[in-house]
Amino acid sequence: YRVSYASETHPIPVNRLHRWTLHVESKSGRPVTDAAVQVDGDMPEHGHGLPTRPRVTRNLGNGDYLVEGMKFQMGGWWLVEFTVAAADGSDVAKFNLRLPK
Predict the structure, then answer these.
(1) What is the distance between the alpha carbons of residues 17 and 27, in angstroms, rounded to a whole number?
(2) How far apart are CA 66 and CA 1, in angstroms?
(3) Structure pTM?
(4) pLDDT for the residue 97
(5) How far, CA to CA in Å, does 20 sit from each of 12, 70, 89?
(6) What's the confidence (pLDDT) of residue 101?
(7) How many whole angstroms separate alpha carbon 30 and alpha carbon 45?
(8) Burial letters for 41-74: b for 16+ Cβ neighbours within 10 Å, e otherwise?
(9) Rounded to 5 degrees, what angle do the CA atoms 98, 28, 19 make?
(10) In the beta sheet, which residues pair with residue 31?
């Protein structure tokens, strides 16, 4: 899958709940409208995860999914993972974020 995200706020905030819109496409660029998505994240340099349990709360259509409960409790390097399962199989998309300290 091809996966991208957009935060509802820019820059991505620290210590504040916010939402992301996740976009999922097939390799050929077709929107994936029936995906099951799991969200996870951690801070590799500190050995801890997110303080919340973000999840997809709504399928927005056209390959877009609303992710609520995103929160980063401190600045630094974060790794956010989305596990996507749909008709074409399952895959993991990983995003590295560097949030201001």
Answers:
(1) 31
(2) 17
(3) 0.94
(4) 96
(5) 10, 7, 23
(6) 86
(7) 36
(8) bebeeeeeebeeebebeeeeeebbbebbbbbbee
(9) 35
(10) 25
Place of tokens 């991208």: 4
Q: HSE of 6 in the Cβ direction (CA atoms, 13 Å)?
A: 6
Distances (CA, A) of 27 to 24, 50, 87, 96: 10, 29, 13, 21
Cα–Cα dist 70/13, whole Å? 10
Distance CA 79, CA 19 (A): 17
- From first to last of the 101 residues of the chain, give the pLDDT tens digit: 999 999 999 999 999 999 999 999 999 999 999 999 999 999 999 999 999 999 999 999 999 999 999 999 999 999 999 999 999 999 999 999 999 98
